[in-house]
Amino acid sequence: MKKSLFTVVAILGLAVSSLVLTSCGAKATEGENAEAPAQKVVKAKSIGSLEDSLSYAYGVGLGDNLRQNFEQMPVDLNLDMFLKAFEQTLKGQDGKLRIKPEEAYQVFQHCMMAIMEQEAQNNKKMGAEYMAENAKKEGVVTTASGLQYEIITPAEGAKPVASDRVKVHYHGTLLDGTVFDSSIDRGTPAEFGVTQVIAGWQEGLQLMNVGSKVRFVIPSDLAYGDQGAGQMIAPGSTLIFEVELLEILK
């Protein structure tokens, strides 16, 4: 989930207020190097009175940070609705607010959860359609759990078991080809216990022989589910991995 808008507003408000107060003439207090910022402040652009300059600069600083935060939201916000609520709240017009300040965070959380659930359903539908087509390809095997695998490079080496640690190279992408993680791109193999990874990997690794390379298509319920992971793996995402099993570590 993205950062809470209300948390961002609170943090940025403090940061911007500090920036604006400094820009409006806060004096340096230590040494010659500390004098430089104070001298620079004198040349800062002024917009009418001190109060006007402070108000405008605060608005620009806070607005710029909010704009950047809005760009990370999972949906486009209704700017008119936002500005109306923002103005009424700032002016203390609580009687006009359709959502009280003490209710706002709960509504925000509810909406974000609903958006995530819808996104997860959409992504799972796309994943199911992709896997249905992928299953028709020659060499693709679908296991009882729903994991799909295709042997790219066969090998005769040993197969790991759940208690083993392994060394692998892998390349992970979304359905549209976006790379979200790759030990190959980093140039360093990964090492971990077979049971320390997502369920799709746990099952898939134990199907591999040392020296083999396999392409896995992992449905969301065997990956990161409806929660997703980080900024790149959205809720309900089906993941594709090309994995090369280099070694079983003892």
Question: What does this entry look like structurally?
Answer:
By secondary structure, the chain is α+β, with helices and mostly antiparallel strands. It folds into two domains: 5-113, no CATH class; 128-249, Chitinase A, domain 3 (Roll), CATH 3.10.50.40. The chain is built from seven helices and seven strands; from the N terminus they run H-H-H-H-H-E-E-E-E-H-E-H-E-E. Strands 1, 2, 3, 4, 5, 6 and 7 form a seven-stranded antiparallel sheet that branches. The chain starts with a helix and ends with a strand. Residues 1-42 have low confidence and may be disordered.
The number of helical elements comes to: 7
- What is the number of domains? 2
Rg computed from alpha carbons, rounded to a whole number of angstroms: 27 Å
Overall 3D geometry? elongated
> Termini separation (Å)?
38 Å
Order of helices and strands: HHHHHEEEEHEHEE
**CATH topology heading of the largest domain:** Chitinase A, domain 3
Question: Which sheet architecture does the biggest sheet show?
Answer: 7 strands, antiparallel
Kindly provide the name of the CATH class of the largest domain: Alpha Beta
Q: Calculate the mean pLDDT score and round it.
A: 86
In the CATH hierarchy, the architecture of the largest domain is Roll
β-strand percent reads: 15-25%
Q: Give the total of beta strands.
A: 7
Structural class: alpha+beta
